[in-house]
């Protein structure tokens, strides 16, 4: 079977390249959610032609969903010749904005030097293409298999996944008895298996002031100065404390094996739309800060929040007129799948077969859609495995290696074979 799988994927090399190029050419930029529907329909049409039953599911009512920007997901299922386990490959179709610094059209899908370039090539349309080729090749090599294979293209992963995997998980698409095993082809390198991710807490903190004339700031109270006092306390107290927190989780890169805090944005005072004129002279009566706190398996979410709240409360006691409000935006607990579970075991064996080496088990520094499969679908036999180098994601001239996709597709197809042969629990 391994020889048949290898031969079937080798025959599809040019098809894999063309599929990756086609997927990149859909500018599925999130936000706002461009080209979701045509991209999903392209995937559905292809898999339908290969014998999959295809369903389109709109994440109605989820953040960003509208008639102009519908959150269109595609789920395709191929039934085998008899009952057995179901293996599901889930990839997100959305990409971040292209940004500046490209030396080529980010949505052309340029093929050069055994690479495919374009926004989303690495994260994660190369992985999606590899999973489709793996599924089609496996079916061709073993048409009499028992069980089922599913492939999905879902939206909004880059903004939390609420219109995609979270919505589908809430509807039972990622739960037993429908699905037993899930592989997410995120770009964590072709010889690595990603068991999970750190936790995340996003919050908005607002300091309050009192508006007054800018020529007489002593008659007002600057919310920006209050925010500055809070930021100074973070620098003095919290950042050094976070640097000292280390984890047993095998997070990559090395710098992410500790707690981190990113200050996403600060908004205060005048709006920025006064150009080409001049701003009016006012004391800022509001300043808002968005924070992104990544935390470890060893930390409790309540303690993570208390570290920030305690600083705010101390300033409220000690700093005259300090007032604040805090609003949670998102929280996700850290998770780590047992490396001896069926999916990581099957992928590990396939990596040994394809690469002749043991895999590296890692944890992602940031979250991805495994969080929803675990917390909403209550399905824990799920990991991320796919082609691509994580450091290339979201950067100019993003690319994915063609040989990397080929080898990853072989690993995926061999994993399908191993998982389908296991008794269903």
UniProtKB/TrEMBL annotation:
Keyword set, alphabetical order: Cobalt, Hydrolase, Metal-binding, Zinc
Domain Peptidase M20 dimerisation, chain residue ranges per copy: 196-317
InterPro entries: ArgE/DapE (IPR010182), Bact_exopeptidase_dim_dom (IPR036264), Peptidase_M20 (IPR002933), Peptidase_M20_dimer (IPR011650), Peptidase_M20A (IPR050072)
Pfam families referenced in this protein's UniProt entry, alphabetically: M20_dimer, Peptidase_M20
Membrane-crossing residue ranges in chain numbering: none
Gene3D superfamilies reported for this sequence: 3.30.70.360, Zn peptidases
Keyword Metal-binding: yes
GO MF: hydrolase activity; metal ion binding
Cofactor requirements of the protein: Co(2+); Zn(2+)
Protein family: Belongs to the peptidase M20A family.
Protein known as: Succinyl-diaminopimelate desuccinylase
